[in-house]
Design a protein that fits this description.
The complex is a heterodimer. Chain A is mostly helical. Chain A has 2 domains: about 5-135 and about 245-270, no CATH class; about 140-240, no CATH class. Helix content of chain A is about 80%, strand content about 0%. Chain A has helices at about 5-35, 40-60, 70-90, 100-130, 140-160, 165-180, 185-190, 195-210, 215-270. Chain B is mainly α. Helices cover about 30% and strands about 5% of the residues of chain B. Chain B contains 26 helices and 7 strands. In chain B, helix 16 (about 400-410) packs antiparallel against helix 17 (about 415-425) and helix 21 (about 595-605) crosses helix 23 (about 620-630). The radius of gyration of chain B is 46 Å and the shape is elongated. The chains are: A mainly alpha, B mainly alpha. Chains A and B meet through helix 1, helix 4, helix 5 and helix 9 of A and helix 1 and helix 2 of B.
Chain lengths: ~270, ~750
């Protein structure tokens, strides 16, 4: 029997999640009407969900054991995250708890949830953007590649010492290309990588052609190639950095959330009365 | 230039996944083969500046985060602001002073017993000293005055029996046609034990200073109820009798007064309007008073009739009439109480006589407690026993006073205070005089204490007379009398009163014919019996000075003096001696007569069904009281109507807020007295639902009257708008639960 398509699986998963939320809401409503301690119910559910969600991080680091594929775990993680957000709203209708500790815990949860939703979006969009750019560069080696491009650009300039393109290209290199090749991308670019600086540099190089002879134009062309290469590298760096920062942010806050949640559960049981 | 024409060397392969460090040599330098160690040390001779990989940087961030977390947790545990940090929110305004003020040193521990323990007890609760102390106990430390500890955890603060009766009552009403089953009835029952409900079940704190501690949803209210419904306007059960039938202490029929008596009362050519505000006035806090005073509301019409009714008063005791042979056995017995068997044992006398078991048995022998029905030898013997006891009782009262009666009543379980109230105005001297007149010295016999008498004196007066001649009466002084003084002008027979030369001048009427016809003015005027004014054919013996009479025998001499007219002589009421009936009686005076009130209070203490109690209730004066104050004679009853405000009943209502609405300022908007055709109007018959079997003279107050405003989006239709949870059946005005 063929596996259902991704869309079909997504519809099924969303439906099951919604049903689970409705059932949970109904149980909470009934229990509230029965004068039961609903906070224990929703809080306990919330804690279990958070722990299960946190287990995903562990699963990624334990590839040996036959615990199911990471993609399956990812799907479970995503839909459980939706369910957990709904249970959180039942537990804390105001979204932010009162009191210093619980307010902090609420904010952490919301940040984790928010980053989770962002991660869902980012994991669906950023890889496409990454693969749209030619080349695959490991994040840790981006610095090395930058150095390579900068060295290559310097060598190109040195090869221009015998014709009239030197003052033109040399001046342009000194003013624009050298800073571009020898420095890291700006924070603005890392946050919102655009093609603006790339287009500007290429446009400027194009404008220089009227002043260059054929060899100079060739060099300018190679400079343009290096600019494009460097821009692609920076683009990939920005997107990879975004993904990595998101994972670090999400996982560190999850640690704080799990710790805070356990402490909160302990306090709640202790002072429940 | 195309991209693929630009050839750049590949990066070195001296790093592995999971490495925390990377080689720091740049692209222009020769890379090392193995890369830095796990500790970040470059193996080359000319060591490079190793760099952290992304994995290494993430591990470091994780480590910093973990250390920060631990530091924060330690701060939370050790800080003196621990409670402020872990406090899950501000307390509501009524409780905020617990944490903010300095009055309560325990702070969190005021409500959370665990908070007073050290941190070690967090992990080992057994070392805490509060194992059996719950949060509810902490609540009751302050709230015990409004909610009793014994019932605090019970649903509605009622015990199981009371709740069961309520449930039965509601279940019966639930099956009425206007109470169909809804989906709400299918919901599961409460998640709490109705005999062990904690305060925190409904009252949740730490929700901010403006949170409403009393907030509770209708669903939560009804979860324990067998009959549930939706919103007020459309599905609340129609109440059967509320607000009527709540045990009003004053019996007043609005219908007859409004439709019959007031219209019949013509003033200035117009019938008197039946104005609600005449009796139900607005109080200072804009509420409506439940009743007005008797003077203001009732006296104008009922005072005269009431006076007539209560004038009948009470009879403490009355000597029975015995035949001569029986009378001879119970000597001394008044001659005037001799004849055919007659008389009844008054209820009060019965109460006092019951103290002695032998007398109590004798009472049982008297048929209907009516001496006229004595026909058998046993009853005759019992009558003689009772006669003796009557005399003994009179003697006790005369000699010992009120304590004698209080002592006898104690055996009945009556409180001394109530008996004291009854007897407060009964002077023992009245009884003493009765004894003297009936038993010792009847008016027709010689009352000279110095005469030979075979009887031993019974009364103090008798004994005092034996001590010597009466100085005031001018009798010859006794030489043995230490008080006698021959020089005492009062002992001079030629006293001032007979001296024609006294300051007052000669007696213009020496004969004093106005006083005593034929009287010798030289004799002692005080020696005369004023009763000698009687017709001469009545008692010739009375013409002589009774104090000097020598005949001390109690011979049969018919009474001739007129009966004491209590109506003219005791208009203000009081105890008196009726020589005609040989009884001690009380005449009532006015509304709120204290003795009659005390009598009813005593009746209330007697067990239901006791024959004496029933007889007392039939007394005309008592019945006059009970007719308007029916609950005064019942257990737990009161004389005055208790205000319904500030009572802890199931239903609460305030006129004040409603009277602010112009359309509701008229009483008849909600309270409509039944019309003249009361028999056909849909009055509420409480006979089936109320123990008091009180007939309600108002048209039913329907739900629609209230739901015109109290609906969703209107004036509030939550359960708690009109209903309380914490009930106290002991509060005044609270109705008893119908069986």
């Amino acid at each position: 029997m063929p596996l259902p398509s991704f869309r079909q699986r997504r519809r099924i998963a969303i439906t099951l999640t919604l049903i689970a939320l409705v059932v949970m809401f109904g149980i909470v409503w009934i229990q509230t009407g029965r004068l039961a301690d609903v906070a224990i119910l929703t809080g306990g559910t919330l804690l279990c969900c958070v722990l299960l969600l946190a287990l995903f991080g562990m699963r990624r680091r334990i590839p040996i054991l036959p615990l199911g594929s990471v993609s399956t775990w990812t799907q479970v993680h995503i839909y459980m995250g939706f369910f957990t957000a709904g249970v959180y709203w039942m537990h804390v209708p105001n979204l932010i708890g009162n009191g210093i500790f619980e307010c902090t815990l609420s904010i952490i949860f919301l940040l984790v949830t928010g980053s989770g939703f962002y991660g869902l979006y980012a994991s669906r969009t950023l890889p496409k953007r990454l693969t749209a750019v030619e080349g695959q560069h490991r994040f840790d080696r981006v610095e090395w590649h930058r150095g390579q491009i900068a060295d290559h650009a310097r060598k190109l300039l040195e090869e221009l010492s015998v014709h009239v393109g030197i003052p033109v290209l040399g001046s342009f290199y000194t003013q624009h290309l050298n800073p571009f090749f020898n420095s890291r991308p700006s924070l603005a670019y890392v946050l919102v990588p655009t093609g603006g600086r790339r287009r500007r540099l290429l446009s400027d190089l194009k404008d220089l052609e009227r002043y260059l002879e054929s060899e100079g134009r060739g060099t300018a062309g190679r400079f343009a190639a290096l600019v494009r290469r460097r821009d692609d590298l920076d683009y990939q760096f920005a997107l990879q950095l975004r993904l990595r920062l998101w994972v670090a942010f999400h996982s560190i806050l999850t640690l704080a959330l799990v710790t805070g949640g356990l402490v909160h559960s302990f306090l709640a049981f202790r002072f429940a009365g | 230039m195309r991209r693929n024409e630009l050839q750049l060397p590949p990066p070195p392969k001296n790093d592995r996944p999971g490495d925390r460090w990377m080689c720091g040599r740049g692209s222009g330098q020769e890379p090392c083969v193995r890369g830095p160690s796990d500790r970040g040390v470059c193996p080359m001779q000319k060591a490079c500046r190793v760099k952290r990989s992304w994995f290494g940087r993430r591990r470091r961030a994780l480590l910093i985060a973990t250390i920060t977390l631990i530091a924060v947790l330690l701060f939370m545990i050790k800080s003196r602001h621990q409670m402020a940090i872990i406090k899950p929110g501000d307390l509501s305004n009524p409780h905020a002073q617990i944490l903010a003020a300095t009055l309560t040193p325990q702070r969190c521990a005021a409500c959370h017993p665990q908070a007073s323990d050290g941190n070690a007890s967090w992990f080992n609760p057994s070392i805490s000293g509060h194992q059996n102390l719950t949060q509810t106990d902490a609540c009751l430390v302050c709230h015990h005055k409004t909610i009793r500890k014994t019932v605090a955890k019970l649903a509605h603060n009622l015990d199981a029996q009371q709740l069961a009766r309520l449930t039965l009552s509601r279940q019966r009403l639930a099956h009425l046609p206007d109470q169909p089953e809804t989906w709400r009835d299918l919901l599961p029952g409460p998640a709490v034990d109705m005999n062990n409900i904690e305060c925190a079940t409904c009252h949740r704190e730490h929700r901010g200073s403006t949170a409403d501690l009393l907030a509770i949803s209708d669903t939560q209210c009804q979860t324990c109820h067998s009959d549930r419904f939706g919103d007020f306007a459309t599905s609340h059960p129609n109440w059967q009798q509320w607000p009527y039938g709540r045990g009003g202490e004053i019996s007043f029929n609005h219908a007859t007064h409004a439709n019959k008596y007031y219209p019949a009362e013509i003033q200035n050519g117009k019938s008197t309007p039946f104005d609600c505000s005449q009796c139900h006035e607005r109080t200072g806090n804009n509420e409506i008073s439940r009743t007005a005073s008797y003077r203001d509301a009732c006296a104008s019409c009922h005072d005269e009739a009431l006076r007539l009714q209560i004038a009948e008063g009470l009879e403490l005791l009355a000597l029975p009439i015995l035949p001569s042979d029986s009378a001879a056995k119970v000597q001394p017995w008044p001659e005037t109480a001799t004849g055919f068997y007659d008389g009844t044992v008054s209820p009060l006398a019965e109460l006092l006589l019951q103290a002695d078991p032998e007398v109590s048995a004798a009472l049982q022998e008297i048929p209907n407690l009516n001496f006229a029905d004595v026909k058998t030898a046993a009853s005759a013997s019992a009558a003689e026993t009772l006669a003796n006891e009557y005399r003994q009782l009179i003697n006790e009262i005369a000699n010992q006073g009120q304590p004698a009666m209080i002592k006898r009543s104690k055996n009945l379980g009556l409180t001394p205070e109530s008996v004291q109230q009854l007897l407060r105005t009964l002077s023992p001297q009245v009884v003493e005089e009765a004894q003297r007149r009936w038993f010792v010295d009847p008016p027709a016999t010689n009352l000279n204490p110095s005469a030979n008498s075979t009887r031993t004196p019974d009364t103090k007066a008798e004994k005092s007379k034996l001590s010597g001649p009466d100085e005031l009466l001018g009798e010859p002084s006794n030489s043995n009398d230490p008080l006698s003084d021959p020089n005492d002008p009062l002992s001079d027979p030629n006293d001032l009163l007979s001296d024609p030369n006294d300051l007052l001048g000669p007696d213009p009427m020496p004969d004093d014919s106005l006083l005593i016809p034929g009287h010798n003015s030289d004799a002692d005027p005080l020696a005369l019996d004023p009763l000698a004014l009687d017709p001469p054919d009545a008692e010739p013996q009375l013409a002589t000075d009774p104090l000097t009479a020598t005949d001390s025998s109690l011979t049969n001499r018919p009474r001739s003096k007129p009966a004491f007219d209590a109506e003219s002589m005791l208009p203000a009421g009081g105890w008196f001696r009726d020589d005609q009936r040989l009884s001690i009686r009380y005449r009532g005076s006015d509304h709120d007569d204290p003795v009659l009130k005390a009598m009813v209070d005593i009746i209330r203490q007697l067990p239901e069904g006791m024959p004496t109690r029933d007889r007392l209730l039939k007394n005309r004066a008592v019945a006059a009281c009970i007719s308007c104050h029916p609950s005064a004679a019942q257990a737990g009853g009161r004389w005055r109507s208790q205000p319904q405000l500030n009572t802890r009943q199931f239903t609460k209502f305030s006129h004040a807020s409603h009277l602010n609405v112009a359309e509701l300022s008229s009483c008849i908007r909600c309270h409509q007295v039944a019309g003249k055709s009361a028999s056909t109007s849909p009055l509420i018959d409480l006979a089936a639902t109320s123990a008091s079997h009180e007939h309600i003279e108002f048209l039913p107050l329907t739900r629609e009257v209230c739901s015109s405003c109290h609906r969703s989006g209107g004036s509030g239709d939550n359960c708690t708008t009109c209903h309380r949870y914490h009930i106290d059946l002991r509060s005044p005005g609270t109705i008893s639960i119908a069986p």
